[in-house]
Amino acid sequence: MELPACTVVLLLWQLSITTCHVHIHPSHYPDHYVDGEHDTEFDREILLGGKKEAEEYQKLSPEESKQRLMVLVKKVDVNGDGLLDRDELVDHMLESFNTYSVEEARDTFPTIDLDEDGKVSWEEYLQDTFGAEYSTEADPAEDEMIQDDRRFFQQADEDDDGKLDEVEWLAFQHPEEYVRMHHFLVEEKLEENDWNEDGLIDFDEYLGDDEPDSSYSSEEEWRIVEKEQFDEYDKDGNGQLDSEEVTTWVTPNHREAAEEEADHLLSMADSNQDKHLSAEEIMSDPDLFLQSDLTEQGELLHTMDHEEL
């Protein structure tokens, strides 16, 4: 079960791993919290646009890295007053989350498009994800996984040509971003958690087989936190999640995540407490921003021209 929205909503890259392959679908945003703490490695990656960009950024001199960060800050400062307010931070991070999904999908697309025709066929997906040799008879769990993926693949294939272009591939890999895919996400969650098959998910089913991580002092504390999140999804307060409430559970609330991260940055860097971030406040602790979700536009830090510096 996904962590509470208050702990991420960048949401969750839910990768199902088998002994022979990485199961791509469905793919959500990765946690940027580990044991209740900001995962600074992930934060840096989403800031800079991915692992490759983060690695290359590490090679820059301190002066050049600061210059690149300031170019980015100017981009976020939409009204040009030299300060970043909460709305500017939130709006820019909303763009960042979308960019992260698109770029991640674009990175994986060419590795799966084996015949390089600009589309991914079902056979190409199977070969890349499950291996050239696989036996559904030998592994029923894998067979079920394949059938689930087949449903999502067909739904993502909007033009019904049996293949996915880049846009359709994004819908397949990030179904939580597409309303037309939400029905299948809800079905999948009900299949996983609706143990008594009544079409609803109660609190015990919501918890599923999950166990508390090390950030909780006890199982009781963990259950209290999870119950609070469950109650937020349970809009009618009947102790069960219907399909509409499950949809809220399995789809991302980017604005909430962006607002939380903006508030985090302001609380850490707004030294004069004027609810704005000045260039001086930002540059006094540049690492804070390299550990934030401020810019999936971090690709800008990697690709901008020298003239901008």
TrEMBL record:
Domain EF-hand: 64-99, 100-135, 144-179, 227-256
Any one annotated GO CC term: endoplasmic reticulum lumen
Compartments in which it is found: Endoplasmic reticulum lumen
Keyword Repeat listed: yes
Stored InterPro entries: EF-hand-dom_pair, EF_Hand_1_Ca_BS, EF_hand_dom
Signal peptide start and end residues: 1-20
Gene Ontology BP terms: protein transport
Keywords: Calcium, Chaperone, Endoplasmic reticulum, Glycoprotein, Metal-binding, Repeat, Signal
Residue span of region Disordered: 269-291
Database matches in SUPFAM superfamilies: EF-hand
Alphabetized GO MF terms: calcium ion binding
Main localization of the protein described in the UniProt heading: endoplasmic reticulum
Keyword Chaperone found: yes
Function per UniProt: Probable molecular chaperone assisting protein biosynthesis and transport in the endoplasmic reticulum. Required for the proper biosynthesis and transport of pulmonary surfactant-associated protein A/SP-A, pulmonary surfactant-associated protein D/SP-D and the lipid transporter ABCA3. By regulating both the proper expression and the degradation through the endoplasmic reticulum-associated protein degradation pathway of these proteins plays a crucial role in pulmonary surfactant homeostasis. Has an anti-fibrotic activity by negatively regulating the secretion of type I and type III collagens.
Subunit structure: Interacts with PCSK6 (immature form including the propeptide); probably involved in the maturation and the secretion of PCSK6.
Protein family: Belongs to the CREC family.
Descriptive protein name: Reticulocalbin-3
Species the sequence originates in: Branchiostoma belcheri (Amphioxus)
Gene (name only): LOC109466118
